[in-house]
Amino acid sequence: MLSFVSGCIRYRIVALEAFLSSVRRVMESHYSTDTASKRKFVNHLATEWETIARNPLGVIGASPEPWPPGKTNSRNGFDLYKLRFYMPGLRGSARRGRFMYLVHDASCSVFAIWLYTHEEFDRRPPAGDLRDELRRSTEVVLQQLRGHPLELAVPGKDNIVLLLATEDQASLLRARGLTRERGRKKRKPR
Amino acid sequence: MSSATLALDIGLLRDLEEPSALLRIARDEIPTLASRLELLASIVEENWESLPQPLRDLAVAYAYYDSERYATEPLARLKAAAASVRLLWRGIAYRGEMVRLMTAIVRLNDAIFTALERESPEYREHLATRLEGPFTGEEMTGAQLREWMHKI
Q1: Low-confidence residues of chain A, pLDDT below 70?
Q2: Is the torsion defined by CA of B33, B39, B45, B49 positive or negative?
Q3: Closest chain A C-alpha to B77 CA, distance in angstroms
Q4: Residues B105, B33: contact at Cβ < 8 Å?
């Protein structure tokens, strides 16, 4: 989790009209009949709101979000953040709530811009039974890995490669001490 | 500089969806598995587009199955509840290791859902519209937000 020291003791939070509209839409879609869950959601969001006001860059569950179309989350002194949390009383992809906000450190301000659930961008596989789909897609990948284990570079760790493998291949590496050393070998102690 | 290749049995993604699978992992294997899953999560977070399509399909099925199974399978809920009790006990006994493993699993799931959102043209369009500004609105405290939401 990234956290920066800031000169702001407390941030003011400005709710943009687009944010308030998105909150209204989420509540009308999901909590129009379930008052108990609605109360939990309201309290949860209000609590997160206060946490953000104290330290918007260090909220547990929040991380920098790329400012499209680029990869960085900063532009003109504004930092974009996405907070992930569970929506009370909801299931499936609607359970995954997101709260997006901008931090403007120079003015000790936070701008709440959007609240939504993952359901709005659902990419659920069309298969009726996801357990079958999970087994099928695992078999497809394992079949490909049997011939050629897949080496993946790990971002920010130039000296580590993650090898996606079958159980047998992984066991073989484990038997060799979990890692396969490459490059310069360590000198044996005298 | 030497480099290391760390192996992850990809079949574990399928097995991890059963809570009972977490009970079968030996204690000394838990930190190893957690670190592999953390590495996989960081790859998904940074390089989702470069992953082969079959692997992305597997990741998506994995993440959605985790989200939905309790809603669709009553028996799975019972099994999960029983496994949870045993997991809780294991969590107490192996507190540090289990917390790290569960955190890694949650991080991987979040990374997959986040990658899917970023891939969506609708998501990018919605976000771009909101980032156009101007950033003017109503200043609120948590208490004021709570009061406003209760009126909806």
Answers
A1: 1-6, 172-190
A2: negative
A3: 13
A4: no
CA dist., res. B27 & res. B126, Å (int): 45
A53 touches B104 (CB < 8 A): no
Residue that the structure tokens 């396969």 belong to: A180
Backbone angles phi, psi at A129, to 5 degrees: -105, 110
Which residues make beta-bridge pairs with A181?
B4
Nearest to A163 among B7, B130, B136 (CB): B7
Return d(Cα B152, Cα B143) in angstroms, integer: 15
**pLDDT, tens digit, 9 for 90 and up, residues A15-52:** 999 999 999 999 999 999 999 999 999 999 999 999 99
Q: Which chain B residue is nearest to residue A186, measuring alpha carbons?
A: B2
In chain A, residues 49-108 whose CB comes closer than 8 Å to chain B = 49-50, 53, 66-69, 75, 78, 80, 82, 84, 91-93, 95-96, 98, 100, 102, 104
pLDDT at B8: 86
| Chain A residues 155-174 within an 8 A CB cutoff of chain B | 155-167, 169-171, 173-174
Reported as a single tens digit per residue, the pLDDT across B48-97 is 999 999 999 999 998 888 777 655 555 555 566 665 666 666 666 667 78
DSSP for residue A67: -
What distance in Å separates the CA atoms of residue A22 and residue B123, rounded to the nearest whole number? Answer: 14
Phi, psi of B93 (to 5 degrees): -70, -40
For residue A178, give the chain B residue with the closest CA: B6
The DSSP symbol for A10 reads S
pLDDT at A185: 41
Q: What is the pTM of this model?
A: 0.84
Structure ipTM:
0.82
| DSSP structure class, residue A93 | G
Give the integer Cα–Cα distance in Å for A122 and A22: 17
Q: From chain B, pick out residues whose CB is under 8 angstroms from the CB of A78.
A: 135
Contact: B10, A162; criterion CB under 8 Å: no
